[in-house]
Amino acid sequence: MLWYTGKRILQMIPVFFGATFLIYFMVFALPGDPIAALYGDRPPTEAVLEQVRARYNLDQPFIVQYLLYIGGLFTGDFGTTFSGRPVTDVMAAAFPITFRLAMLALLFEAFFGVLVGFIAGLRKGKLFDASALVVSLLLISVPTFVIGFILQYLFGVQWGLVRPTVSGEAPWSELVLPAVVLASVSFAYIVRLTRASVSDNLSADFVRTATAKGLSRRRVVTVHVLRNSLVPVVAFLGVDLGALMVGAIVTEGIFNINGVGGTVYKAITLGEGPTVVSFIAVMVIIFVLANLLVDLLYAALDPRIRYAK
Amino acid sequence: MKRSRIGMGAIALVAASALALTGCAAGDDEASSPSGDTSAIVSTNGSEPQNPLITTNTTETGGGKIATSLFAGLVSYDADGAIENEVAESIESDDATTWNVTLEEGWTFTNGEPVTSQSFVDAWNYGAKLSNAQSASYFFDNIVGYNAEADSELTGITVEDDTHFTVELIAPEADWPLRLGYTAYMPWPTVALEDIEAFGENPIGNGPYMLAEEEGSWNHEVGISLVTNPDYDGVRKPVNGGLEIKFYTDLDGAYADVQSGNLDVLDAVPDSAFETFESDFPDSAVNQPAAIFQGFNMPYYLEHWSGEEGKLRRAALSMSIDREQITDVIFQGTRTPATDFTSPVLDGYSDSLEGSEVLEFNPEEAKKLWAEADKISPYTGTFDIAYNSDGGHQAWVDAVINSVKNTLGIEATGKAYPTFAAALADRDANKLTGGTRAGWQGDYPSLYNFLAPLYTTGAGSNYEDYSSEEFDSTLAEGTKASTVEDAIAKYQDAQEILLEDLPTIPLWYSNVVGVSADTVSNVTFGWDSVPLYFAITKG
C-alpha cells in the first residue's frame, strides 16, 4: 500500500511538467500581443511597450519563457501578474476561497445526494423515488448559471435572506448559497448513481446471504447495501472535486467570489502565462491527489480491491 | 480607450429572462434627508486597478476613479467638465506656449508634507521618463525636453519657488489647462520617489479622500477603503465619511447588490438590466450621454476602400445604418446616435456640423453613392466588421451588418475574434479584411482629446493610418488659437473634414447609466461617467 502510494506520488512529477508545458504552450499560442491589448485602444509609445514586454519575458522565444518560469518555481517564484503582483499572492488569496466553496459543495452533494439516492433506491417506484428522479432530471438539464441567478434573485434580492454577492473574506456562512448552486448538478448525478447502485445491490447475492443469515434489515441495508453502493459514488466524488474547482468559474462569477475560476478566466483572456500555468498546475496536483485518495478509499470500502506491489 | 471588464454575454441574457420570469422589484420611494450623515461611508462599485496606484501609470477606469479621489491636481472637473482650480491659484499664459502656474498655499499631503512646485515637477518627470515605462508618459510629450526614445528631463519646466513654476510647451496649446485635472498630472510627496512600489500600494495623496489605513486598505481583487481627508480644503469637500469601493468582476452581481441595499451606488448597469433599470430604480436611474465615442473604421489598405471610391463607399455605408433603431432596440436607449466625432458632454460639441447629414439614415442616398462607387470599380466580396467576442459587441455588430446588408444589398457578416488581443494584433498588422470596431473615452474634457490622438498623421491611436494635411493643419491652428472659443471653432472645422473623409464611421456615444439605492442621495455623474463621490449624502 505504501509502495503504491509512493509510486502514485512520483507519477505526479511527469504529469506536472507535462501539464505546465502544454498549458504554457497554449497560452503562448494565443493570438495577439497581451501587452499591447492591456492598454486598449490607447497604446503607449513603442519604447514603453518593449520595456513592459521585457519585464514579463514576453520578448523571449517560447522555450526560454517556459524555462525561466520553471527555473523560478525552484526558487519559489511563480512569476508576476501584469499588474505586478506575485502570482503566489494571488494564489494565496484565491485557492482557500475556492477550496472552501468546493468543500462545502462536496459535503452538500455527498451528504444529501447519498441520503436522497439511498432512500429513493430503497423505495423504488414509490412517490419519493419518482420525485427524486424528476428533481434530479431538472437539476441536470437546467444550466448552473440559471439556477444561480434565480437563487441569487430570490434569496438575495427578493427575500433579502442573504447578500446577493459574497464579501471579500468569503466566510463559510456566505458561501452556503453559492455552494448549493455549485453542487446542484453533481447532487443530481449522485442521487441517480446511489439510487441505481442501491437498487442493484438489494437484489445481489451477498444481500440475500446476509438476510438469510438472519441479520436485521437495518444492518443489512446500512452495512452491506450502503457500503457497497458507495464505491461508484466515491469514484464520482473524486473526479468531481476537480470538476468543482473548474466549474466554480460560473458560480464565482455570479456571486462575485474572488476564487480560482474567475482568476484563471481573467488571466487567460489577458494572456497572463505565469498566472494561468501556476493555477492550473496546482489544480492538476489537487486533482491527482483527489484521485489517489479515491483509489485508497476503494480498498477501504471493498476489501476485494487490494493494491499489490 | 479605457479597457472595460469582460462581461459574460450568455449569462447576462439568461439573467434577463430569469428576472422577467420572477418579476422585478421596484425601488421603494423614500424621501431622503438633504443633509445626511457626514461620517457615513458610501459604498460603490469598482474594479481591481490594472496597476499599482501610481498616477502616471493609471490610464484605466478601475484605478482612475480611485486615483482622482486620493489626489488633487492643479485643477479638477465639475459635473459639466469645466475646470475649477484645486491646488492651482492661477494658470496663465500670453502665448499658449509658456504657462505660469501659481499654487495656492496651505496644501499638504496626508503625511504632512506641503504640496510644492517640486511635488508636481517630480511626478511629471517620473511619468515622462522613458525607462519608467509609464502608460501615461505621452501626456507629457508636448513639454519641452520630452523624449520618447531615450531618458530625458522635462527641461521645459522651471521651478521659480515653492508656489511658482513655469511650463514651456513644444507647440502652443490654448486649452492646455483643460488637461491638468487628468490623473497623469497629480503631485507626489517625496516618499513616492524613494520607494515607488510601496507608494503604488499605499499611495499618499492630497485629495478629498485618503486610505482608511496605512496598510491593507487596498484588499486586492476585493475592494479599497477610503476615508475623508480632514486636511483637504479644495472644491471637492466630501459631505460623507468615506468610500468603500467594492470590486466586481460581473455587473450582474453588483446590480443585485444595489437592489437589495448592499451597495449604495452603481455607476454602470449590466446589459441584462438595460430594459428594466429605469423601472427598478424610478428615482435614481441615470441615463445620459458620456464622453465615450464609438464607431467603426474601414482600413484604407483594402481594395475598394481607398481614394475617391473609398470615400463614396464610406459615406454610403454610414448612411445605410439606422442608428436610431439600433440604439433603441439593441441598447434600449443607453446609447445616443452620433452627430460628430466627439461627445455631447464636451464644450464645443455640435449636432449641426456641415456634412453631418452623412450620419443620418438615408437608404436612397446610400444606394446612389454605392452605385457611383461601383462605376469606379465594381464591388466584389463580402463586407465584414471585426470585433472581439469577449467584449459584448456581437449584438450591435450584427445589427449594423443587417442594416448595411438590407440597404446596399451586399453580402455582409460580423467577424468575431476570441479576444481583444487577437483583434488588435490583426488591426495592428494591417491584416483586417473589413471594418473594425473603434472606440474612445475622453481623458479630459476637450474636443482636442477626441481628435488628435485618433486622426492626426502618425498619432498613437491612429491604427488605420488616416492622413490628411488639411485636417492636421486645421487642428494645429486650433491649438495655436489664443482663446478656447477660437480653438473650438477650428476643431469643428477639422471635424467637417473628417465628415467628408470618414476615417471612422461614427455610430453612437455611450451613455453613462447608473443606479443608486435609497440609502443615498445627491448622486451626480461627472463628465467622465464617474459619480461625484464627494457630493453623495447618506443617511
From TrEMBL, chain A:
PROSITE patterns: ABC_TM1. Its main location: membrane. Belongs to the binding-protein-dependent transport system permease family. Keywords: Cell membrane, Membrane, Transmembrane, Transmembrane helix, Transport. The keyword Membrane applies. This is ABC transporter permease. It holds the Pfam family BPD_transp_1. The keyword Membrane applies. The chain crosses the membrane at residues 12-30, 97-120, 132-155, 175-193, 233-255, 275-301. It is found in: Cell membrane.
